[in-house]
Amino acid sequence: MDAATILVVDDExxxxxxxxxxxxxxxxxxxxxxxxxxxLTLARASRPDLVILxxxxxxxxxxxxxxxxxxxxxxxxxxxxxxxxxxxxLIGLSVGADDYLTKPFSPRELVARVKAILRRHRAPTGKNxxxxxxxxxxxxxxxxRREVKRGETQIDLTPREFDLLYALASYPGRVFTxxxxxxxxxxxxxxxxxxxxxxxxxxxxxxLEDDGDVxxxxxxxxxxxxxxxxxx
Length: 232
Prior knowledge:
The chain has 232 residues and is an alpha/beta fold. 41% of the residues lie in helices and 22% in strands.
């Protein structure tokens, strides 16, 4: 299997050099960028497997870079932030970031997070044939193509949003706690806050229900979430 390609984006070159050296030592192919516009250009050209992205960047900040990347690709994103308040972390995660680390961070922990994200990404690929397409009214969820459609219109989801939707829709009517969804979708290695589930559910709802006719993902107050829909 080819080595995964990681794009490291930070305006501080010593941080980029340090992270790149640890990733290269683990066998990853590493690319580097030092501002938002360069990161977008490089990511569009090379299609990396994962982007390590600082929040505070010149040109375009990391939040906007992440947002634009996920309008065009399904790349995985790990955010780096010097901000410690929970709101900023949730803002980053709401635009499709898969994980975050707060500076200062351990390079070894960063490498572990990268490996965990890539394991979650690759794990289903050998089992796609065992995962059925799910159809609810006009909504179809195809795990092999990782596509979601309402009728003939494709709904663009981030990788995490797709995994969350498939986890819920695989068991219509079953109530999942946030902790269960973290285990199923983010994996046991995730060290973030459980409110990340709420953020992703919010963005998923906006994408699924922009016509206002159907509420597929419902809140069960004090417990978690469930998928509601009639399969066919």
